[in-house]
Write a structure and sequence with these properties.
Radius of gyration: 22 Å
Oligomer: single chain
Number of helices: 2
Distance between the termini: 58 Å
Length: 55
């Protein structure tokens, strides 16, 4: 009886990721993108606060 290996059968390769701080230095965010993120965070916070009120 043979034992088949089933771990990681769908992984083709492994690629090391760089640290987030290095990525942030290499890929600068634009002022517009920064404002979009800030607005989305404010909107998300408002939605969550409204959800808590109606519980």
């Amino acid at each position: 009886m043979s034992i088949s290996t089933t771990d990681d059968v769908r992984i083709e390769r492994i690629q090391q990721l760089i640290a987030p701080t290095i990525l942030m230095e290499q890929v600068a965010i634009t002022p517009k993108a920064s404002e979009v993120v800030a607005e989305a965070r404010r909107d998300s916070e408002a939605i969550l606060k409204l959800s808590l009120i109606h519980i």
